[in-house]
Amino acid sequence: AGGPMSSVVRHTGTDIQLSHNTAAMAANDVVIACDSRMAAIFRISKYVASSQTISHEASANSSANLGFAANGTQVSQQLAADAGTVMPLESVAWFVAESEGETALFRARYSATAVQVEEIISDVVSLQLSYLVAGQDQYVNGQSSDFNTPATVDWGSVVAVRATLVLTADPQQPLSQQARTLSHVIQLRNH
Q1: Choosing a second label site near 124 at 20 to 30 A (CA), which of 28, 93, 99, 115?
Q2: What does the DSSP assignment read for 69-117?
Q3: Is-contact 85 25, C-beta < 8 A?
Q4: Where would I find the H helices in the chain?
Q5: Which of 61, 92, 90 lies closest to 76, judged by CA?
Q6: What is the chain's mean pLDDT, rounded?
């Protein structure tokens, strides 16, 4: 989720009344809604400003329901008014590409009906991802041909992702290879 959240005042049928709409959510926006029992991603089918109400009708989604039972049947779910929130869903892609004769880290995100691309960090040579599987003590390279074979990876058992950026060497500010490599580990809570 990205951007400000809105609290649920009432959820009746396919209509969700919000306390406010500071994220300026509108028809056709993809949002995530959740409370202490459930979470759902859907496209807003309509927005009524006078009542601060968004809808999740079947016309904009695969169904008008927000949930599925364990056997795959559709279940009508309602967000709790005391704990429900709605936020814009932000889907982001990260990549390294050329920019003004140098390479840089970019972020692309879908906003309303267009893709917005922005440069985040200049002088980035590469972005590498590696994964840690539960019960293992070594990260697996995300570009390994073995790793991309579906039979060899149980994505549900991945407990951490390590993102490593390598920066361009600058002859005017010489640094060791270690100082030009930035790593960040993200622990996943997917089980």
Answers
A1: 115
A2: -TTS-EE-----TTT-EEEE---EEEEEEEETTEEEEEEEEEETTEEEE
A3: no
A4: none
A5: 61
A6: 83
